Amino acid sequence: MSRPAYVTSGRYAPPAARRELVAVSADGARLHVEEHGEEGAPAVVLAHGWTCSTAFWAAQIRELARDHRVIAYDQRGHGRSPGASRYGTDALADDLVAVLGATLAPGERAVVAGHSMGGMTIMAAAGRPEFAEHAAAALLCSTGSARLVAEALVVPLRPGRVRTRITGAVLGARAPLGPVTPVAKRVLKYATMGPGSAPDKVEACARIVHACPTGVRHAWSEVLAGLDLEANLAELTVPTAVIGGKNDRLTPIVHARGLAAALPHCVGLTELTGMGHMTPIEAPEAVTNAVRELTVHVKHPKNATDDLKEKTP
C-alpha cells in the first residue's frame, strides 16, 4: 500500500529546501536533513515528533526562513530517513548531535526546537558536549519527560491500571493506519487535536501521520511507553521555553507545567487554550513566535559559515 502524500498547497505544504544532505548517526543510521533560508543567517534546528516528519514544520519553516537558516531533519524511520535496527532515547540523542555536527560550524549555536518526541530528543541530548557546543536555547513543544501512557487522556476512563493498559495497546497497535478517510481524520482529530481545529489542519496532520510506516510507529511507541528523562532535565541548562495545549490528550498540560517547574532556566510557559497535541500546525504563529523570541540568545560567529565550508567535503 502506498503511503499518503503530504498536502501540496497552503501553509502546510512542505516548502522546497535550499539544500538537502544526509547526516550519519553514531550507529550508521542515515538521517535526511533539509536546510532552508540563507547561509550565514542565525540558525534554528527543528526536531519533529512521533509519526511525523519535516513536513510537520512547514508553517514554521516558511516563516522563519525569511531571516534564519532553518534546519529540519527526519527522525530515524520517519519521512525520508530509513528505518534502523536501534530505537531508544540514546538513538534520539545520537541523531540530534549528528545533525548539529553536520550542519553547524564549530562554535556556531542555534535555537533547537522539538515537538513531542522531538522535545524528548532535546532532553535526551541535554548532557551531550555536542549539544552544549551548539544549542543556544531550546523550545519544548507539546512534550513530556515521563509517565506518558499513564497520564494520556486518549482513553476516556479514570486514571489507573486499566486505562494505562488500554492506552498502551491503542498507541502501540501494530495495525496499519490505512488511507486518509473522513473516519480516520475524525479519530486523529479526537486523539491529537483541539475540537476547533480547521479541516485543512486536520488534513495536513492526517497525511503526515498516516505516512509513517507501521513498524516504525510501533517501535517508537514502545520507547515512549517506557520513557523516563526526568533526570536529564537538570542538564538542560540553556534558556528553554515550554509550550503546551490545554486540550492535549497525548501529553496533557500537566507535563508542560512539570517541565517548566523542573527546568534550571525556563524562560516561559505558554498554555494554548483550545489547542491539542499538534501545536505547530494548530497554532503555527504561537510556535513560530516562541522560536523567534529565543533567537535573542543566539550569538552567530562571523566565521561560522566559512568554517563549516572548510570541514564539508
From TrEMBL:
UniProt xrefs under Pfam families: Abhydrolase_6
Coiled-coil positions: none
A molecular-function term among this protein's GO annotations: hydrolase activity
Domain AB hydrolase-1: 44-288
Keywords: Hydrolase
Top-level lineage group: Bacteria
Protein name: Alpha/beta hydrolase
Biological source species: Streptomyces flavotricini
